[in-house]
From TrEMBL:
Primary location: membrane
GO CC, one annotated term: membrane
Record protein name field: Cytochrome P450
Keyword Heme: yes
Species for this entry: Arabidopsis suecica (Swedish thale-cress)
CDD domains listed in its UniProt record: CYP71-like
GO molecular function, one term: monooxygenase activity
Amino acid sequence: SNRNLPPSPLKLPVIGNLYQLRGLFHKCLHDLSKKHGPVLLLRLGFLDMVVISSTEAAEEALKVHDLECCTRPITNVTSKLWRDGQDIGLAPYGESLRELRKLSFLKFFSTTKVRSFRYIREEENDLMVKKLKEAALKKSSVDLSQTLFGLVGSIIFRSAFGQRFDEGNHVNAEKIEDLMFEVQKLGALSNSDLFPGGLGWFVDFVSGHNKKLHKVFVEVDTLLNHIIDDHLKNSIEEITHDRPDIIDSLLDMIRKQEQGDSFKLTIDNLKGIIQDIYLAGVDTSAITMIWAMAELVKNPRVMKKVQDEIRTCIGIKQNEKIEEDDVDKLQYLKLVVKETLRLHPAAPLLLPRETMSQIKIQGYNIPSKTILLVNVWSIGRDPKHWKNPEEFNPERFIDCPIDYKGNSFEMLPFGSGRRICPGIAFAIATVELGLLNLLYHFDWRLPEEDKDLDMEEAGDVTIIKKVPLKLVPVLHH
Ligand code: HEM
């Protein structure tokens, strides 16, 4: 007690607080915080973890102590999968990470700079609408969860690799989705991380975890090698595209590096960035659109209002093609996206941070090398800052300066500070355009209208809608 650590629920020998974490991780932490306070110390096996669940504590951690909290814990077992910190998302804080983030912002994530990605987004949306129109003519229901994962997967796959899923020689859509799902699953904490030394290793060995990890790493690496080889072959044969993809740009940068450059981009960095973009970009953006559609179907008043805005502002388009610029006119649609991000942040605990030195949060001492989780799911529904927090009410953002860009600590769906999501602009452009297409062309109804829509959550790092969203599209025009 004289170390003035944050409050902590009762721990059991060896396992610590693990026994209290059953069910959805972010919800367990939410419940524990309600009982013990917004700065909570947990021990999971041999790992110390502080969980932050209030606006004020988040501001202290991510703003006041941004520098001390901006590295990620990198674990021995999974580090190979994350390319030993040569990527962005799991890289320790330092010169190399700063350069990689700067480069990604300038080259790939700024929507105004990268116009070619805009065409990819528009083309993929047109294709999605075409398929949905066929379903609408047949009056059949569609699995919108699958449709939206497919949409974002194709947008990101084409932006990164320059190919459609179905054009590649080395992989098909299902294979890459399965592979990335495995990376996400295996890349989280393992028993060896929680129980360093013999015990954890033994459990991972017996359960086959280590073998699976190695197999998945080899598969992802082989796939990336094939795709990189194709790009290198094209560049030797001088097959140039008018729209270079992310791999083209990174290879070009590697080629043009000079001896004296202080930062040198490597093929491992390239693989890490591509892996990150796919892992961090696809399911987060798809999840956000799925939750937005689910909330709209559940709230017909909001659905009507947003569709009225869209259809009035855009009117009847001759070629029926929606362009990205159309989104600029749609203020209420933007509020719908904001409200979705408040209630359904795709990564409810952000990505784990690790303190680099001892800091104080809300008066408590947080020792160096403590894992830090910020429960933004909890923060976004804190009744101290949000009136009727569980209600889906986009109007709450009218004349309200709170935003998702990391400066308002009342909602932090993209995190904040030095490790804030670098893909915000890309994500928002993808989500807004996708929703606009769904809401302009179609009305939506439940397959069984007398049944309530299930809103149960599932997942750990990212939180999906547990039951896939199945809806019937009805052609509007
Ligand atoms: C709605 C969609 C998205 C959401 C909700 C989201 C959310 C997040 C969050 C919460 C973090 C951790 C931030 C922190 O720890 O403070 C993160 C990190 C990251 N995101 Fe996103 N993201 C989205 C889309 C994207 C897209 C489209 C890309 C790339 C094209 C992307 C790339 C990244 C990367 C590379 C990181 C790691 C940054 C670092 O550790 O320095 N994200 N994202």
